[in-house]
Structures are given as C-alpha cells and as structure tokens.
C-alpha cells in the first residue's frame, strides 16, 4: 500500500451526498456515518448548486445522483468537481450497461446502483479518495456487457419509432408521423425495446429511453 493510500485510510474521508430525494440522502448519510466506515458526511443535499455553495466544499469525494433532475449535464458536474480536486462516485436507480458506461465516460470513477448494499458505496468512496475505481460486481458485469454488447439489429421502422417516441411524442403521434396505426407503432416501439434489452441495454422507461437517445445523438442534450 502506498503512503498516500495509508494516509487516506488513517483519516476519515470527507464526503458530500447529492440526490433529488431527501429520504435517500438522509438514509445514505446515516449508513455512511457509522464509525467503522471511516467516512465523514459533511453535506447531504438535494440540489447541485447547494453543493457548490456549501461551506464544507470542496470535499474529498462527492456522491452524486447520475440522473439529478436539473439543467446541468452530469459531465459538466464532474468537470466542475474535478477542477476542485473532488473525486466523483455516481449513484443511479439502474445498473444497465448504457447508464454505467455513460457515467464513467463522463468522468465518474464508478457508479453504485441504489439497489446495492451500503458496503459497496463505502468501498467505492474509499477507493475514489485514493484516486481509484472500485466497481461492485453488478457494475463490472454491466461494463463487460457494454464491451461485448451485441448490435440490437433494429429494423428501420423500429428505429424510427423509438427515435420519435424518445422525442416525447405520444404513440398516436408516432403512428401519424409514420403513416400507420397506433397498434403498429406501439408494436415497433415494443420490439425495439425488446431487442435493446437482449443486447444488454434497458430502455424500459421513458427516462431511460430519453437518456439513451441523448447518448446516441437522436435528440440534443437537455
């Protein structure tokens, strides 16, 4: 173990938490603050600007919700934190390959799904404080799936329907644009999602579909 790593383990890591939901923030703060975790939660917030304005900022590690509902792209958040020497661990509701890949590409050292035990977040925080990435097994599986992902092999109509639906159009509006019936348009969307799921990419909700559409360039970033 390096001298820097030894020093990091000797002291408590100063952490800020940012998530849209107060209950989640409070729950995480309680779990990370147990003595054996060697973590000091100095800020538990529900908005991005609150972190930058907090008197305890900058911190060692910021744990930030990947899908934080604001107008600031996640990549911009990571770049801003990095400029102050703050390492980033992403939180997410899902652990699909596309979400994990997007978070790491944006600069987060790792992503911890909210479905994982708190121990994985503790380990990820300590690794991040040392400048390392420590992935939970489910996240590593997602990364492997992304690296080995298969082409979803969408048909032209399936791709068009998904792109239109991702833009926020209703099934009926998609059908009108494609000059077909509502039922057929719905079938195109359903088949497209199923093919993506088979390829390891979950587009089962409108939020996931929209995020994927932004990553793929189907629609401009918000």
Secondary-structure map:
Blueprint: H1 3-10, E1 13-18, H2 22-32, E2 39-45, H3 48-52, E3 61-65, H4 74-82, E4 87-92, H5 97-105, E5 110-113, H6 118-129, H7 137-147, H8 156-166, H9 171-177, H10 182-198, H11 206-216
Parallel strand pairs: 1-2, 1-3, 3-4, 4-5
Can you walk me through this structure?
The chain is an alpha/beta fold and 222 residues long. It folds into two domains: 3-147, Rossmann fold; 156-216, Arc Repressor Mutant, subunit A. It has eleven helices and five strands; from the N terminus they run αβαβαβαβαβαααααα. The chain has helices spanning 3-10, 22-32, 48-52, 74-82, 97-105, 118-129, 137-147, 156-166, 171-177, 182-198, 206-216, and strands at residues 13-18, 39-45, 61-65, 87-92, 110-113. Strands 2-1-3-4-5 form a five-stranded parallel beta sheet, with helices on both faces. Helix 5 links the parallel strand 4 and strand 5. Helix 5 (97-105) crosses helix 7 and helix 9 crosses helix 10. The protein starts with a helix and ends in a 6-residue tail after the last helix.
Categorize the overall geometry: elongated
Q: Report the order of strands and helices.
A: HEHEHEHEHEHHHHHH
What's the CATH topology name of the largest domain? Rossmann fold
Estimated structural class: alpha/beta
Summed up, the domain count is: 2
**Overall number of strands:** 5
CATH architecture of the largest domain: 3-Layer(aba) Sandwich
Compute the number of helices: 11
């Amino acid at each position: 173990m390096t001298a820097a790593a030894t020093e990091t383990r000797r002291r408590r890591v100063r952490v800020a938490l940012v998530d849209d939901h107060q209950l989640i923030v409070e729950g995480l703060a309680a779990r990370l603050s147990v003595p054996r975790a060697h973590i000091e939660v100095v800020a538990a917030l529900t908005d991005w600007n609150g972190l930058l304005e907090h008197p305890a900022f900058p911190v060692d590690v910021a744990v930030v919700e990947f899908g934080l509902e604001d107008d600031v792209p996640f990549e911009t958040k990571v770049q801003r934190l990095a400029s102050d020497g703050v390492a980033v661990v992403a939180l997410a509701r899902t652990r699909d390959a596309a979400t994990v890949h997007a978070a790491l590409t944006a600069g987060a050292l790792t992503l911890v799904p909210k479905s994982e035990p708190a121990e994985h977040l503790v380990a990820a925080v300590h690794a991040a404080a040392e400048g390392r990435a420590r992935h939970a097994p489910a996240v590593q599986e997602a990364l492997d799936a992304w690296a080995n992902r298969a082409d979803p092999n969408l048909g032209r109509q399936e791709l068009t329907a998904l792109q239109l639906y991702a833009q926020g159009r209703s099934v009926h509006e998609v059908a009108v644009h494609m000059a077909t019936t509502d039922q057929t348009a719905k079938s195109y969307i359903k088949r497209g999602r199923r093919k993506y799921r088979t390829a390891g990419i979950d587009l089962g909700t409108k939020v996931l579909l929209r995020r994927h559409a932004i990553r793929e360039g189907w629609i401009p970033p918000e």
